[in-house]
Every structure is written in structure tokens, then in C-alpha cells.
Amino acid sequence: MNVLKIAAFSDGNLGGNPAGVVIGNKLPDRGEMQSKAAEVGFSETAFAAPKDGGWIVRYFSPETEVPFCGHATIALGAALALQDGDGVFPLSLSAAEISVEGQRQGDIISAALQSPATTSTPANQELVVEALNLFNYKPQDLDPRIPPAVAYAGATHLILALSNRARLSDMHYNLNDGREFMRRSNLVTISLIHSESAQKFHVRNPFASGGVVEDPATGAAAAALAGYLRDLGWPHNGVIDIVQGEDMGMKSLLRAEIPEAKGSSIRVSGTARIM
Q1: pTM
Q2: Kind of pairing, strands 156-161 and 189-197?
């Protein structure tokens, strides 16, 4: 089984979030995909096979299958552009129909995904308190302009906005405790964010549900955040830029374009580099 290794949402020739990409004539069985994802060891590996003029895709972390992964979709878009040329590729996921676009530019490939539809709801107080305790944060660390929320764009994320950039940088937690909390709460990740301005966000994204302490770039969470900001009436002016992975030494750059229609797909874009 040939695995391409591609860093999605890179900062030019640096940074980004590594993903595995496996393209074949048919999908392997579930156990084989899970085993290969664990062997690759990246936060996600995408498996794709042709279907009805597009591609059927499944995503696996080292420990679990996830319904949607943004950075692995960007990596897949890059891989398909390398294989088939520039284009827009329809993707059939377990619970959504989306697309990814890939365009080659030398060793760097630009890619953009269209997310599943978005939803958001206020997070209940018990969930927020447990999450704050996990990271040793206090209620006063939160930014009151962006209340805690559970947001969805193909996968479910808890969004906690911090008022201080230094508190975001200080993020730490116990992986086993985080895994138990996220799986029990049906959260794929927790999105910890800080607003530098109305259109620029610094983000850290613990992914303990998949056995990963932190992702340096998370396209699914970026789409969920963008959808939530739209629901909130945040002055995004149609686009936000996200800097992620900086505190890990793996700086990643993501852009989310936000149409006006509530719940509509978010376009998340960036560059990808072949590893």
C-alpha cells in the first residue's frame, strides 16, 4: 500500500500538518485502513478510491476513524492534482458530499475544500467547566465576545475563545484525561482560539479523541469556527485567517471564506508541500 506524505496548510516550504494519503482502485477493509493509519502515525490518513466520477474517502487517526478531516482533504487534493492534473474533485464522505480543488505551483500545491454544512449551539455549562478544568483554565481566561460553543462542519468541535494569547501558548493537558473527556462528549477536537483581530485568529487544537495531543492545522475545525462566527454575527467581512501550530514549531496558515447564507459550506484553503 503506497502512502503519500503531504503537509497541508504549510507556510511555504515549512510547517503544515502532515497527512497520509492512500489512493487505490478500491478502499481496503476497515481493519487494514486502521492498521495503516497507526503505522503511518500522522494525526490522519485519508484513503480514497474512484466512485461515480469522483472519489469515496475515509479518514483514520492512529486510534479511530473520523467522519471528516480538513487537512487530510487538502493533502488529498494535492495528491489528486499531482496524479490527474489541476481540477475540482468531488468527494463522497461517510455523511456528506463535498469537493476539494488542487492546483500545482512547482513543489507547492494550492488546495481548497468546500466543507459540509455548518451548525453551532451554545456549549452547556457542565461541558465548559470540565473543559476548563482539563486545561487548568479559569472562567476569567475566556473572551466574553465569543461564548463557548459546540460547532459542526463535518465533525464536532468545542470552541473556547481565550482573551490572552499567552494563555493559549501555555496550553497543556493530560492526554488520557482528554481522550476520555472528548470521546464521552462526542467531540472530535477542542478548538482553543484567540482573536488577534476580527479577521485573524491564533488557534491550538487538541485531538485527544484520536490519540493525538495536538494538531498543527485543522481544516475541519477552521470550517466549524467560521460557521460559528457567522452564526454569532461576528464582523468577519467574509473571511478569516488562522495561524495554527506556531506554539508547536510547525506554523500553519489557513484561510476560511464565509458566505452569508446560514449553514452554508465554508471554503477552507491553503498550500500543501510534498514531504
Answers
A1: 0.95
A2: parallel
Residue type, 241: D
DSSP letter, residue 211? T
CA atoms within 13 A on the CB side of 142: 18
Tell me the three cell numbers of residue 33. 485502513
Q: Looking at the DSSP assignment, which residues form a beta bridge with residue 242?
A: 201, 254
Domains in the chain and their CATH numbers?
4-114 (3.10.310.10), 119-269 (3.10.310.10)
CA distances from 266 to 108, 123, 154, 228 (A): 23, 21, 11, 11
Residue keyed to cell 485527544: 208
Nearest partner of 184 among 130, 222, 119, 116, judged by Cα: 130
- What pLDDT, on a 0 to 100 scale, did the predictor assign at position 117? 97
Instruction: Give pLDDT, residue 260.
Output: 96
Q: What is the pLDDT of residue 113?
A: 97
| pLDDT for 246 | 96
For residue range 165-188, list pLDDT tens digits in order. Answer: 999 999 999 999 999 999 999 999
Q: What is the pLDDT of residue 108?
A: 80
Determine contact, residues 118/264, Cβ cutoff 8 Å.
yes
Residue ranges of the chain with per-residue pLDDT less than 50? none
3-class SS string, 102-159: EEEECCEEEEEEECCCCEEEECCHHHHHHHHHHHCCCHHHECCCCCCEEEECCCEEEE
Q: How far apart are the first and last CA of the chain?
A: 17
Q: Where are the alpha helices (DSSP H) in the chain?
A: 30-40, 70-84, 125-135, 165-169, 175-184, 219-232
Using CA atoms, how far apart are residues 162 and 136, in angstroms rounded to an integer? 13
Residue 46 CA to its chain's centroid (Å): 13
